[in-house]
Amino acid sequence: MSATSPRALHDAAIVIDATAPLLSDPSYTGEWIQGGATVATPTIAVRDTPADTLVQLAKWHSWLHQAAERLVHVTTVADIRRAKGERKLGILFAFQDTTPIEWRLELLETYQSLGVRMIGLAYNFRNRVGDGCAEPSDAGLSKFGRSVVREMNRLGIVVDCSHTGYRTTMEAIELSTLPPVFSHSNPRKLVGNGRNIWDDQALAVAAKDGLVGLGGFPPFVSTKPNPTLDDWLDQLEYWVQLVGPDHVGLGLDYFRGESVTDESYQRLLRDQTWYLPDYPAPPYPYPRGIENATKLANITEGLARRRYGDVEILKILGQNWMRVFGANWGA
Ligand SMILES: [Zn+2]
Q1: Separation CA 62–CA 56 (nearest Å)
Q2: d(C-alpha 50, C-alpha 93), whole Å
Q3: Scanning 164, 190, 222, 244, which has its CA 20 to 30 A from the CA of 106?
Q4: Collapsing DSSP states into helix, strand and coil, what is residue 20?
């Protein structure tokens, strides 16, 4: 139990949301600032060409420059501490797929030098590295994929297994010499959605001192159309009980769910970005109580209400991500 109020604990905490596709539009950074986040992680690229990826990186560098009084570009753990100390929002660059490197392993170092610090292996579908979680074949990590994981380890880019097929994740986790993660993945035992992951996948990253970040995309949180913070906390508790409080974090995956129209939804299916049945039709109301990033403090309150101690709460909010980032980035 705690002597600190949940509000004070949240204000003092390092809060890391490791998945934020909504921030393809940086005008939303204010929501994370209002929610007391220390770090938000825009998805810089998914299955994008190197050219489009570089344009997005250039845009972000320019935004960071213009908003230097509010934002800090995070490439080290010290940058995260500095963001907290200066009451700014840290911005961490991540990809959700390896397509931006094409067949050119050396592009990993280029992206790393531009600040990219975490990369997902395969977004739902098959790519050069391995199968995504939508693929019935569930082929494992490719020969090229093995080189990619080794090079990511050499460069200290976090190996992210979210969206990736079962065998590819298990083989990448085994191969990785640094703590790998699922940046935003929910327990399949609780919600039988194919984008969610099995217990042995979560246990495998934990055994490598990595972690599982819990997402908030409603079809992964509940089979009900309108999940609540309590449904989300049930999933968080499931992970904590399975892998322990040192191996769970946040990867809320906020995006502009309300803007997905029927037409854009059909396009996402046609483009082989999303797939049925795991991505049902909109709307996507994020769990009631944490509808958007302005409400992150409700997570701290919810955990306190469920009698989590301060130390555990601080780990889940950000300290676990700090440890994993430190081990990968070397700083
Ligand atoms: Zn995602």
Answers
A1: 10
A2: 15
A3: 164
A4: strand
From ligand 1's centre to the CA of 185, what distance in Å?
8
For residue 283, cis peptide bond before it (omega within 30 degrees of 0): yes
CA dist 34 and 100 (Å) reads 32
Q: How many helices (H) and strands (E) does the chain have?
A: 14, 10
**282 burial type by CB count under 10 A (0-12 exposed, 13-18 middle, 19+ buried):** middle
Q: How far is CA 282 from CA 168, 217, 290, in A?
A: 29, 11, 18
Residue 106 to residue 104: CA distance in whole angstroms: 5
Q: Is the whole-model pTM more than 0.90?
A: yes
Residue type, 75: T
Going from the Cα of 130 to the center of ligand 1, the distance in angstroms, rounded, reads 16
State pLDDT tens for residues 245-292.
999 999 999 987 667 888 999 999 999 999 999 999 999 999 999 999
Residue 96 alpha carbon to ligand 1 centre in Å:
6
Ligand 1 center from residue 225 Cα (angstroms) = 19
Cα–Cα distance between 197 and 179 in angstroms, integer? 18
Please tell me what DSSP assigns to residue 276.
Answer: T
The alpha carbon of 142 and the centre of ligand 1 are apart by a number of angstroms equal to: 21
Q: How many A from CA of 121 to the centre of ligand 1?
A: 11
CA of 163 to the centre of ligand 1 (A): 6
Q: From CA 275, how far away is CA 129, in angstroms rounded?
A: 20
CA 13 to chain centre: 19
Q: Hey, what are 193's tokens?
A: 């959605």
Burial of residue 275, with CB atoms counted within 10 A of its CB: 0-12 exposed, 13-18 middle, 19 or more buried: middle
